[in-house]
Structure formats: C-alpha cells, structure tokens
C-alpha cells in the first residue's frame, strides 16, 4: 500500500507556479477593483493587500530557484504584471517594481544577496534608479547622503536601494568613459527616511515617495557595481538593461486593455448620451471609433508579445547582453506608451461626461497611463537612438 501511494505521488502532475499565480490574481480581482478608491486615497497599497500579493508569489516570481524563488520565465512574469495592471494601475506598477527589483539585486555580491533574502524569497525590494546621492570613500566603507525620488513601493519595502555617485575628497571618482563612477547601495528599509512627497496626477497608490539617507556610514558590503558579469545563473539574470523597457511595456498594455474593458462595460449598460440619437452601442460613430481602438490595442499586444519573445530567445541563447537590444526594447516601450495613452484618451472621449467623475475607472486609467508615459523608458527622445540604429543597420546591410 505504501509503495502504491509513493508511486502514485510521483506520477501526479507538477504544479505550474505561473498558472497558480494567475489563479490567485483572479481570486483577488474583485477585491482589488472594489478597493480602487481606497488605494488612491491612502496613496499606497493597503498592507493586507500587500500580504495577499506576497502570498501568491509576487515578490518571489523572479527570485532564483536557488533561493526559494519561482524563477519564472520572463514572458510569464510579464503576463503576471500585465494581468495585475489590467485590474489596477497602482498595483500593476508595484508588480513591475517587484519584478525589476528582484532582477536588479541579482547583480549584488553573494554575501549581500544572502542577507537580502535571509528571511525567504518573498522579500519586498524597491529603490530609485536616479543617482540621487553621493558615497564618499572612507576607511570603513562609504559615507552616504542623498535624496532619491520615485521610490515606488517604499511604504511596504523590506529593503531599499539607491544609486550613488562615488566621491573622494568631495570630488566624483571617474568611471567608464570618463563619467562619474556609480555604485548601488542596499540597506534595510528601517535605515531610510521616507519623505511624504507623492502628491501626483496618477498612479497615486504606488507610494512613490522620496527616500533619504543623512550622512550614513555604510560598509562596503552593502554596495555593488551596476555593470558586472551575472552573479546568478539562469537566463533571467544575464542582462538587466535590456529587460527593463519590456516590463514597462507589459504595464501600459495591461492598462490599455483595462481601459477598453471599462468603455465596453459602459456601453453595455445601454447608456445614451445627451443629445445622442441612439444608445452608445448602437451608434455607428461609437462603433467606428471602437473598431479603430481595438485595432490599435491588438497591434500593441502583438508588438509587445513579439518583442518579449525575441528578448527571451536571446536570454536563453546567452546573447541578450547587446546594446542594440537595449535600443530595440526601448523602441517598443516608447511606441507602446504613446499608443496606449492614445487608446486611453480615445476611450475617455467616447465615454462622455460620465467619465469625468472620480468614481469612473476611465478617468483613473487615463491619469495612470499618462503618468506612466512620463517614465524615462518611454520618452520620445529615445527614438533618436532607434533612428541611429536603423541607419547603421541599413549601411551594414548595404555593405
């Protein structure tokens, strides 16, 4: 009997952690939608929702198996982020931060990495990618001071990181190409001061406040270099800069999907706008615009899926660490942000006056998408590098 049971357990199908996460998200969806106003008013994700997200594996999805994580394939993790963004912008953004932070800290030395995850793989990490501080070299490490903006998720983080300009005698230390040397500092969240600065137009629930360190002596062991060879094995950890724009793309596509969802839900109520001859869903003008919007959304979904699959193939082949792939990813992020903002604008316009109220999800999606499109990964100036790459490739092909 025991042998039979043992063989039976070995023949049972293995659980798919990615699918388990999506099931958990679906179960949590009604509560997330019902608490949208609460999330905005608090300007953070409520602690109990953070714990629910933690329990479904959000903070461990890109943590390696060696440290108890799920180590999801990159496209699978992007689907998780997109699914959460479709439910709520702020929660989707926090999901993106959770994924990126896990990949970012994977570049840290083994000793620091072990300390970050000493309590398990569900550690919440956040930080700021802007070089908002200085790290003055001293005998015992570095004397750090600074003020870092946009630390999304700092209200529930266990560890916080920031980029520092390394200095000696008050002057920047030269780094690659003569630019100032940059290093990342990681400290437990309790060591940082959080400034209440997140009063904004959109993504209000992300709690993206400023974080501050005031003349803090930090050991060398809490620092790491940004451009180092991968310290964790596995394709996820081979090149961070190439993957970052695709995370942003997953977020904006998920938000655009939710905006169309909300417009369709409004039309299906039978709403008829003032002075309109027929209900929205019977109007050919509405149907025409909805058709155009649907085509744009389909193009955005397809572009992001193709770009993510291409980058993941490079990661699996060990060829991801290529500057051209940074440009390709940024091209997709920029186009996707612009397209998805256009979708939100069109949906808001079609909805009429009912969309202007705080109770309307459409106005919240509109604001969240516009704020997301202000991110450095999605700025229109990125097209300059895209154009340069296209010119160089055309010359190479001609030769």
From TrEMBL:
This protein's UniProt keywords: Monooxygenase, Oxidoreductase
SUPFAM superfamilies: Acyl-CoA dehydrogenase C-terminal domain-like (SSF47203), Acyl-CoA dehydrogenase NM domain-like (SSF56645)
Keyword Magnesium: no
InterPro entries the UniProt entry points to: Acyl-CoA_dehydrogenase-like (IPR052904), Acyl-CoA_DH_C (IPR013107), Acyl-CoA_Oxase/DH_mid-dom_sf (IPR046373), AcylCo_DH-like_C (IPR036250), AcylCoA_DH/ox_N (IPR013786), AcylCoA_DH/ox_N_sf (IPR037069), AcylCoA_DH/oxidase_NM_dom_sf (IPR009100)
GO molecular function: acyl-CoA dehydrogenase activity; flavin adenine dinucleotide binding; monooxygenase activity
Domain Acyl-CoA dehydrogenase C-terminal: 246-379
Keyword rRNA processing: no
Residues of the Acyl-CoA dehydrogenase/oxidase N-terminal domain: 29-98
Pfam families per the UniProt record, alphabetical: Acyl-CoA_dh_2, Acyl-CoA_dh_N
Lineage top rank: taxon: Bacteria
Official protein name in the record: Flavin-dependent monooxygenase
Origin species: Bradyrhizobium diazoefficiens
